[in-house]
Amino acid sequence: MSRQKEQRHYQIHTYEDGNTVRRLEAAPDYHEERRKRKEERQISEQKRRRRRAARRNRERALKMSAGYVAFLSACVVAVVFTSVAYVHLQSDIIIRQRAIEKLEEEISAMQLENDAAYKRITSSIDLKAVKKQAKKLGMRYPSENQIVYYTIDNADYMTQYAE
Q1: Secondary structure (3-state) at 34
Q2: Contacts with 158 (C-beta within 8 Å, 6 or more apart), sequence order
Q3: What CA–CA distance (Å, rounded) separates 14 from 139?
Q4: Neighbouring residues of 152: CB distance < 8 A, sequence distance ≥ 6
Q5: Which of 66-70, 77-81, 85-89, 132-136 has the lowest mean pLDDT?
Q6: Digit-coded pLDDT (tens) for 25-68
Q7: What is the pLDDT, as a whole number, of residue 163?
Q8: For residue 160, what are the contacts with CB-CB under 8 A and spacing of at least 6?
Q9: From CA 96, how far away is CA 102, in angstroms rounded?
Q10: Torsion of CA 10, 11, 13, 15, to 10 degrees
Q11: Which residues lie below 8 Å from residue 30, measured CB to CB, with a gap of 6+?
Q12: Which of 162, 97, 74, 12 is nearest to 4 (CA)?
């Protein structure tokens, strides 16, 4: 009976893969598992150290020393001073631009007045009366030998020197 029992136990708990020889399964490598666990522990320890260092850095960053506060105050004063100077310069520029615009308006008004006066003067002169007065004073038209003719060689202007 023990033989039958053993055979039945063998049949129940054994699985045959046909008529081929089974491959041997390699024994688990406990050294590899230990190495992996050790690496995981080292990685987690590094993470913990980094977290602690980051927490310490945050705490240090939140603390302000007197020197740091003085430095920040000096920076704020410098920025405010620069901003005020910039606004002052901008207002000076605007004031000067307005003064320039007023002067330009005055110049254009004076030019208009000058042109109007010139036209008034030229239109008021009677050329016939001037010609009549010139004849009374003995003036006459120039003669042929008093007229000098010039030729211009491809120049758009001419320079005359005293005779």
Answers
A1: helix
A2: 150, 152
A3: 153
A4: 158
A5: 66-70
A6: 666 667 788 888 889 999 999 999 999 999 988 888 777 778 88
A7: 57
A8: 150
A9: 10
A10: 120
A11: none
A12: 12
Give the span between the Cα atoms of 58 and 50, in whole angstroms: 12
Tens of pLDDT, residues 99-140: 999 999 999 999 999 999 999 988 888 888 888 999 999 998
Cβ proximity of 87 and 95 under 8 Å: no
Instruction: Report the alpha-carbon distance of residue 120 to residue 123 in Å, rounded.
Output: 5
User: How many residues belong to the chain?
Assistant: 163
DSSP per-residue string spanning 91-136: HHHHHHHHHHHHHHHHHHHHHHHHHHHHHHHHHH--HHHHHHHHHH
Question: What does the CA dihedral 77, 80, 86, 89 come to, rounded to 10 degrees?
Answer: -80
Contact 147, 153 (CB under 8 A): no
Query: Which residue has 């010039």 as its token pair?
Result: 150
Look up tokens 């004063």; give the residue: 77
